[in-house]
Amino acid sequence: MKCKAGAYAGPDAVKLVKWTSTGEWDGETAPATLVAQATGIGPTTLKDHRGGRCSCHKKVETQPRELKILIIDIERLPGWVAFEKSGINLSGPFWDLSGWKWLIKHRLSPDAVTRWPRTICAAWRFLGDSGTEFASEWGDGPEGLMRRTWEAYDAADIVVGHNLARFDTKHLNTGWRDAGFMPPSPYKTIDTLSVARRHFGDESKTLDALTRRLGLASKTDKYDAAVAQAACDGDVEAQKRIHGYNVGDIDATEALYLAELPWINGHPHVTPDAGNARAACPRCGSRNVERNGTWSPGVFVYAVYRCTDCGGNYRTTYETRGPSVRAL
User: What is the pLDDT at residue 218?
Assistant: First the structure.
């Protein structure tokens, strides 16, 4: 334990970081009397430092922190392949190397790729913010697009998106790696598509289908590869259109996330240092909660509460122990 005096507490001696204006102790130890002489702290005070009872070790009162929830969506441009098959020259767009398998009966060779698919723009918003951020390769440059999305992920505690885990995050990871960025700070992923697949039986689980079925803010346009290509080529109208489409996906994703919120299992506590675990809903942070019986996954019995705002259930920590025998 380090105090403001620069000393580390120990049972018989104290390790110094810097005990004179010129000398440094690195990995060495000194008797407590020498430390007292060097730092100006008397031996009796050093005992307090060892026990953590000095003013250096007093806890600082802080306000409860709320997690930053990032909602993000990216748009991509398909790649291009050109190859020969049975004496016929073929070329066209592709999203992955299996995209032409229906025609040529095998995966495309990487040697046939003349342009790989790439991320061309992204829109994002932190939950609770009024505005939506947008970055694109025509407005920020390819590296600027990667940097701004990396900074958004790096600032987030939770990242939300539709098909986020299998699509958006993996493609952004690829772009960051290629641009020479290190991984962003750790975060939790909430994929609204995975939640829909786990809990609901909707025949179509696309973002547009789910939001329309629930009567929520839905997608404002449909993706068009020709529009995406025109935007990359400098067409201002195409750039405006894909910007509106991308931002519209953020509105739809946020609405779907809030609708699915009470169904999301294991949602990180949005106010992790709020204090009493029973006082606030871990999903939305509301303190409007009511007792909702108990839950017993096995031997232990937990008190259950329901949030009257988002509708989600949550349990407290261990409350009582149930029967000591279990069926085989």
Answer: 77
